[in-house]
Amino acid sequence: MQTVDFRYFPLGSGERVLDLGCGEGRHVISAYALGDVHAVGVDLSAADLRTARERFTGFEEAGNERKQLDLVEASALSLPFADASFDKVICSEVLEHIPDYRAALGEIRRVLKPAGLLCISVPRRWPERLCWALSKRYHQTPGGHLRIFRADRLWAEIERRGFVGFYRHGAHALHGPYWWLRCLFWREGEQHWLVRQYHKLLVWDLLQAPWLTRTLEKWLNPFMGKSVVLYFRGEDSQ
Q: Which stretches in the chain have pLDDT values below 50?
C-alpha cells in the first residue's frame, strides 16, 4: 500500500533516497523498483527490517549496478549519515510515533541536500480524532500514536526549516472506516466479523484495483483520506 505519489516525487537516475521509518519496506522497495536509485531504509525495529529484506527478494534486480537497496537499524533522532547525503527523503506515517518529532525534522534537514525533495505523511486530523474517541488503547499501546497533527500547522513548521511546500493530497480514504471498526471493536480486534469482512474488501481492492473502488477512493481522498501527504522542496531549488 503506497502512500507517496511518485508523480510528485520523481526519482532521478543515480539519486540517493532515504525512507525514514521504513517499517516493512513499502516505500523503500517502491523507490528501488521505480528508479535507478540507491534506496536506503531506516527503522528502529530489527523485526520490521528483516521483513523488508525478505520482501525485497522478489524485487531485487541482480546484476543491475544502477540500483542498490540498503536497510539500516537506527534512530530518526541520530541518523548515521553525513550532512547533505540524500537527494530525497520520505517520512511516511512516522512523526506521530516519535516523542521529539522536531528533532527528527532537524535530522531530515541535515541529511537532505539543500535543493532536495521531502515527502511527509501523517494521519489526517479528523479521522484520527475519531479513532482516539472510539478507543483509548488505539493510541496508548506501545509504539502507538502520540499526537494528532494539524496538517496546516505541520506544513508551516516544515517550511520554517528551509523548505517550500508545493503539493498536498489525501490517501487511503477506504482505510479510515477499517480503523474506526477496529477501534469500535478493539477487544475482538481482527476476529470481529465486521472487521474481518472489511479487511477482505481492502485486500481485494489492493490486489484487483477495480475501477469502482479506485474511483470512489479518488473522490473521497481530499475529504476523508486516512493520511495527508505533504511535498516540499529545499529553498535552494528555487
A: none
